[in-house]
Structure formats: C-alpha cells, structure tokens
Design a protein that fits this description.
- The protein has twelve helices and no strands.
- The chain has helices at 35-41, 72-98, 105-113, 116-140, 146-149, 166-184, 194-197, 202-214, 216-242, 247-269, 278-298, 301-322.
- The longest helix is centred in the first third of the chain and has 27 residues, at 72-98.
- The protein starts with 34 loop residues before the first helix and ends in an 11-residue tail after the last helix.
Length: 333
C-alpha cells in the first residue's frame, strides 16, 4: 500500500478504469449497474459465426468528483502535518511579541489575539503551509493538476440540476450570512471571546475582513470541500461496503456522512476564536454543512467557494458600514 493508494476500501473490480477518448464520459455511466436495463439498451453483439457474443455487465462506478488520487493513508499524514502546523507555527510567530513580557498563561491567548500582525501572520503562515503540503503531495509528486485534482472544476456538471451561474451562489451565500446573523444574535456570547480582541483597532478589523474575503474562502474550501469531503466519502462508503451494503447505497451513505462530518469540522475549526460558544459554533456547523451540500450537488468546489465568498463578503460590508468605513470602532468589553 502506498501513500496514494486509493483502493484501500474499494475492491478493484468495483470501479471503472478511466474512460478513453472513444468511451462515454463518466457522467454517462450510471452509479450502479443494472444488467437487465443495460442489456436492453445495449444489445448483445454477434460474432462472425452468428452466435451471441458475451457482453460483461456494467460495473458500478463512482461519481467523477469522488475519483481521487489519495486515500485514508494520505489523510493520516495530512492530519498529522496540519496538527503540527497549527500548534507550532503560531508559537513561532508569537516569540517576538512575548519577549520581555510576563503575561499569565490564562491571558496569553487574549493578548496575542489583540495583536493584528500576530493573528494575520500566523493564520497566513498556517494556511500557506497546509496548501504547500497538498501541492507537493498531490501535484508535484504525482504530476497531477493541483486545482482540478482538488475539485476546482467548471460549473457545468450535466448531472446536477443546480444553476451554473456563479452569482447565484454568491447571493445565496449572502442570504445564508443574514440567516446565520439572525440566529447568532439570539445566542448569549461571553465577553472574553478571543476574536473580539482583534476588533479593538482599525488595523485589526480591516485585516480581519480582508483575510475573511480574500484568503479564507479559497483555503477553507480547498481543504474542506476539495480535499476532506471526497476522501471521507470514499472511506465511509468503503467501510459500509465491507459490511455488505450495496454499492449505490454505500456511496450515498458516504456522501451524506461526509457532508455532515465536514460541516462539523468546519464549525469546530472556528471554536477557539469564539471561546467555544456552542450556539455560534452550531450555526457555523450548519453553514459548513450547507457549503458541502452545494459542493456535492454541483460536483465542484467553485460553487461552494462563491457561496462562501458571498457569506464573508456580506459580513465585511456590514462591518464597514457599521463602523463608518472602519473609522468608528465600537468598544469591545
């Protein structure tokens, strides 16, 4: 088994090889093979002697956006690398800001979050390290196109009944942002959330909004919807098939479970900066589930990216309006 072995839970005979140019595209192949209907629509061929030639039944085939080059082995390496990056890189960035200061451990996080340069610098460095790991292991070492491999495909999936217009997803993200804000306003939040410390200065607020619009949607959609969603769906469907579940049902179970699981992970990612206020984290879990559902239905990260971009952009616009162009920073308790 290699780092990029993708058949860890999938018996080789259950998947179609990549179609050649003269074969039908993967979207023309049904998810589960039905020998009776297949025989009716594909008559048996005859050999020169006039006898019916044997035609093998159509094997089940995964949706195209789940045909990935990495498996659970790569996922383990990725999680270890991401954990180390999240733990070590912010610590390294914090060294210059902590030298000569005697800050109690319980106040350390709040103090560091009040420094915009630390927050943006450590976040940017961590995001860059994670993307670099994916780029090296999934593109450089395998010779595959990086963005396409991670689900960045055109919004023209013929199997999806959803629109292919990016602005529709952008506006949908704006609507989702309003709904999340309305629900979140009913949640009691503590006065010591780390993220609020970043909002005390004009520079911090502007940098945070810039990060939320320009960087966060790109990186988070690539990681959660581009990398985690398909591999988790493959792993879960493979496990259910090992217990005897039929291929199509197992694939559906994997997709649904992965949509929910990536949504939960997306919400938990923001838990620390929200002081683990579970009402707000729950709202973000719902938002993450919605993003992944759209990605699964359209077969491309582009759809969830524009939705995420609309979600964050509306927050930035309302913040700019509420602070009169970041000139009147409201007091943070």
């Amino acid at each position: 088994m290699t780092l990029f072995d993708d058949n860890s839970f999938v018996p080789p005979e259950q998947e179609q090889p990549s179609p050649s140019p003269e074969e039908p595209a993967s979207s023309d192949v049904p998810l589960a093979g039905d020998p009776i209907n297949f025989a009716g629509s594909h008559p048996a061929e005859t050999n020169p002697a006039g006898a019916l030639a044997y035609q093998a039944p159509l094997q089940p085939s995964l949706p195209e956006d789940l045909r990935i080059s990495w498996s659970w082995v790569h996922l383990i390496f990725f999680l270890v690398f991401a954990f180390v990056a999240v733990a070590i890189l912010p610590l390294l960035v914090s060294i210059p800001y902590l030298q000569g200061k005697h800050i109690p451990p319980q106040e350390m996080e709040r103090y560091l979050y009040s420094i915009p340069q630390f927050v943006i610098g450590s976040t940017f460095l961590t995001f860059g390290a994670i993307l670099f790991f994916l780029y090296i292991t999934l593109a450089v070492l395998t010779g595959q196109p990086f963005w396409h491999t991670l689900g960045w495909r055109k919004l023209t999936n013929p199997d999806s009944h959803l629109t292919a217009k990016p602005w529709i997803y952008f506006l949908s993200g704006c609507v989702l942002s309003i709904i999340a804000a309305m629900v979140g306003s009913r949640v009691h939040t503590p006065e010591d959330m780390p993220i609020e410390a970043l909002q005390k200065s004009k520079t911090g607020l502007m940098l945070m909004m810039a990060m939320a619009v320009a960087i966060a949607p790109l990186v988070e959609e690539t990681v959660f919807r581009g990398y985690l969603y398909p591999v988790l769906a493959r792993i879960i469907s493979g496990i259910t098939r090992s217990f005897g579940m039929e291929f199509a049902r197992a694939t559906h179970a994997g997709v649904v479970s992965s949509i929910l699981l990536t949504g939960v992970l997306f919400g938990l990612l923001h838990g620390a900066q929200l002081a683990w206020t579970w009402g707000i984290v729950g709202v973000l879990i719902f938002v993450g589930v919605t993003f992944t559902y759209v990605r699964a239905r359209t077969g491309t990260v582009v759809a969830s990216y524009f939705m995420h971009l609309g979600y964050n952009s509306l927050i930035a616009i309302f913040t700019a309006i509420g602070t009169h162009g970041f000139t009147r920073i409201p007091p943070v308790h």
